[in-house]
Amino acid sequence: MAESLELPVIDLSSPDRISTANSIRQACIEYGFFYLINHGVEEQLLQNVFDQSRKFFSLSLEEKMKLSLKEYRGFSPIYAENLDSSTSSKGDLKETFHIGPLEGHESHVNQWPSKEMLPSWRLIMEEYYQKVLSVGKRLSSLIAMALNLEDDFFEKIGALDKPFGFLRLLHYPGEMGASDEVIYGASAHSDYGMITLLETDAVPGLQVCREKLKQPRIWEDVDHVKGAFIINLGDMMERWTNCLFRSTLHRVMPIGKERYSMAFFLDPNPDCMVECLKSCCNDSSPPLFPPIRSGDYLRERISAAYSS
């Protein structure tokens, strides 16, 4: 059994932004993960999203495949994705549904279940998407302060004028079937982008490994905290901060019990250049990564996960 990790708790409603930013800085340096409370997303809306997610994933595979993944939007069945290419696993034991940006020239690419089948689905998902995007933007200004930057830094560089936000609904089936190999709900990986805001249904399974380069890996459980988002940073933020802030390795282990979660990936405008922040490098600590366009980096990483 893994030990439970005591993650920091950040209060988004605190009027003391400087103190909050300092707490975020410490959390991002030490863990790359923290809980976010008082974020303003109503409990009833969270419940509605879980209810609608369950309704969609309970449809027949034939019905779900009518919305199969196109341009990273829509349904992806069990074993379609393998987040850890170093394993011999046939894929991760989860099915997913992706919703991309709701505005802009690519918004028409989103796929939606029919109103006849799930009448409230689209409205509820769009409401949740907008609410969690707003939370992510508020959080990003505190992260900028945590990096000794102005609170509107990410807006100024064009990262958040048309952010690349993706809502990913996840369903981990309870039945694992007989197998000789280790089965992962989500195999070991770090997220690719900027910030991830995760909500879970309280079923355990999420684990983190704080030292990704050490062997053997030590895994710790991340417990559910009612009313809190679990926040973690992605590899793009690690690049931006010259590895000052962590993009932490994590996985989901099946426990023989059905599990639902929803992850919101707040990533920059695809045209935004990601290069080492001035506050994170100097003569003795030069940039570790070359500049790269956000969209190019994300496409490369996502393609790799689906081609293995």
Provide a concise account of the structure shown.
By secondary structure, the protein is α+β, with helices and mostly antiparallel strands. The chain is built from seven helices and 15 strands. It has helices at 17-30, 43-57, 61-65, 121-146, 153-156, 235-240, 294-307; strands spanning 3-4, 9-11, 33-37, 74-76, 95-99, 164-172, 186-189, 195-200, 206-209, 220-221, 229-233, 249-252, 259-267, 273-274, 292-293.
Give short descriptive properties of this protein:
single chain, alpha+beta, Jelly Rolls, eight-stranded mixed sheet, five-stranded mixed sheet
CATH fold-type name: Jelly Rolls
Nearest-integer average pLDDT: 93
CATH superfamily: B-lactam Antibiotic, Isopenicillin N Synthase, Chain
Strand order of the largest sheet: 2-3-11-8-13-6-5-4
Low-pLDDT ranges: none
Distance between the termini: 30 Å
Number of H- or I-type helical stretches: 7
* Beta-strand fraction estimate: 15-25%
Radius of gyration: 19 Å
Counting DSSP E segments of at least 2 residues, the number of strands comes to 15
Query: Tell me about the biggest sheet?
Result: 8 strands, mixed
Q: Which secondary-structure class do the elements indicate? A: alpha+beta
CATH architecture: Sandwich
Q: Assign a percent range to the helix content.
A: 25-40%
* CATH class designation: Mainly Beta
Number of domains: 1
Order of helices and strands: EEHEHHEEHHEEEEEEHEEEEH
Overall outline? globular
Description:
This protein is an alpha+beta fold. It has one domain: Jelly Rolls, CATH 2.60.120.330. 27% of the residues lie in helices and 21% in strands. It has seven helices and 15 strands. An eight-stranded mixed beta sheet has the order 2-3-11-8-13-6-5-4. Strands 1-10-9-12-7 form a five-stranded mixed beta sheet, with no helix packed on it. A two-stranded antiparallel ribbon has the order 14-15. Strand 2, helix 1 and strand 3 form a beta-alpha-beta unit. Helix 1 packs across helix 4 and helix 2 crosses helix 4 (121-146). The two termini are 30 Å apart.
